[in-house]
């Protein structure tokens, strides 16, 4: 495994994100996942094409925290429905190897993939058992890393729940460049966005239209988003990202909305 000095840094808000992953996995495992786990059953699976090293250092502190795959695995196991297998990937091979080693140390079964999410998501979809219960966490560094085809690969499964880190910071900081260039990351992240973000609109309205267009694309592929969208902000109230949940089944979306309703006093919800 990589040493502590090589661990990637994350902001303190990463723990907010992991708290949502933990709560959703626990709830889904207790309510539904236990029916899929065991000999002769279809299985309960976790998918993460942006797994990182499995550990991280919180910026400006000495604190170390588990990555999302380890958080999810621990949550499922504590809820009595451990994942049958975790399918993890990353562009960096040493991250994948490190994360897999940490998971296996905890008794988890892991399949690994190395490469950009566009490639690994297709490979994961090829290898995933068709009739299992699936939860995918898509946590890219920026919009460019999450082409919409990644989601389309996973949406082919009947029982697929997806939690997406949608970078509002990237959308805000780089939106002028996205608008002025003939090609931009948004062209693959949210195909057709230019027809929705009219040049005459205020910038805030344009960005909102991009997000709403992306959600409409989710509807088109049969993965409607839950009503609650959580806006995570930094220590100076700067925009960071939205957490957006999508699933084919209404029960899964109700789980997510219930989790966010419980956190509403602390967070800005849309």
Blueprint of the fold:
Elements lengths: L8 E2 L3 H18 L12 E5 L6 E4 L5 E3 L1 H11 L6 E6 L2 H13 L4 E5 L2 H11 L5 E6 L9 H8 L4 E7 L1 H6 L1 H6 L5 H4 L13 H18 L9 E4 L5 E9 L2 H14 L4 E2 L1
Parallel strand pairs: 1-3, 2-5, 2-7, 5-6, 7-8
Antiparallel strand pairs: 3-4, 8-10, 9-10, 9-11
Give me a quick take on this structure:
The protein is an alpha/beta fold and 270 residues long. It is 40% helix and 20% strand. The chain has one domain (4-169, 220-261): Vaccinia Virus protein VP39 (Rossmann fold, 3-Layer(aba) Sandwich).
Describe this structure in words.
This protein is an alpha/beta fold. The protein has a single domain (4-169, 220-261), classed as 3-Layer(aba) Sandwich (Rossmann fold). Helix content is 40%, strand content 20%. The chain contains ten helices and eleven strands. It has helices at 14-31, 68-78, 93-105, 117-127, 148-155, 168-173, 175-180, 186-189, 203-220, 250-263, and strands at residues 9-10, 44-48, 55-58, 64-66, 85-90, 110-114, 133-138, 160-166, 230-233, 239-247, 268-269. The strands form two sheets. The protein has an eight-stranded mixed beta sheet, sandwiched between helices. β5, α3 and β6 form a beta-alpha-beta unit. α1 (14-31) runs parallel beside α2 (68-78) and α4 (117-127) runs parallel beside α5. It starts with 8 loop residues before the first strand and ends with a strand. The relative contact order is 0.13. Mean pLDDT is 92; it is low at 265-270.
């Amino acid at each position: 495994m990589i040493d502590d000095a090589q661990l990637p840094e994350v902001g303190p808000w990463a723990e907010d994100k992991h708290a949502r992953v933990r709560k959703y996995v626990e709830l889904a495992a207790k309510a539904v996942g236990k029916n899929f786990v065991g000999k002769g059953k279809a299985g309960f699976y976790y998918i993460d094409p942006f797994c990182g090293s499995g550990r991280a250092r919180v910026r400006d502190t000495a604190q170390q925290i588990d990555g999302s795959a380890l958080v999810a695995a621990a949550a499922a196991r504590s809820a009595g429905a451990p994942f049958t297998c975790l399918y993890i990937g990353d562009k960096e091979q040493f991250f994948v190897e490190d994360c897999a080693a940490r998971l296996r140390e905890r008794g988890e079964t892991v399949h690994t993939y190395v490469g950009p999410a566009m490639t690994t998501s297709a490979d994961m979809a090829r290898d995933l058992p068709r009739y299992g219960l699936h939860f995918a966490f898509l946590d890219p560094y920026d919009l460019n890393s999450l082409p919409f085809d990644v989601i389309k690969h996973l949406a082919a499964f009947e029982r697929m729940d997806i939690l997406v880190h949608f970078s509002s910071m990237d959308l805000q900081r780089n939106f002028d460049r996205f608008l002025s260039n003939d090609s931009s990351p948004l062209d693959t992240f949210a195909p057709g966005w230019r027809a929705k973000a009219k040049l005459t609109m205020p910038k805030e309205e344009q960005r909102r239209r991009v997000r709403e267009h992306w959600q409409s694309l989710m509807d088109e592929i049969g993965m409607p988003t839950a009503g609650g969208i959580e806006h995570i902000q930094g220590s100076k109230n700067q925009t960071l990202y939205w957490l957006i949940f999508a699933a084919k089944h209404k029960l899964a979306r109700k789980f997510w909305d219930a989790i966010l309703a419980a956190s509403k006093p602390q967070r800005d919800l849309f």
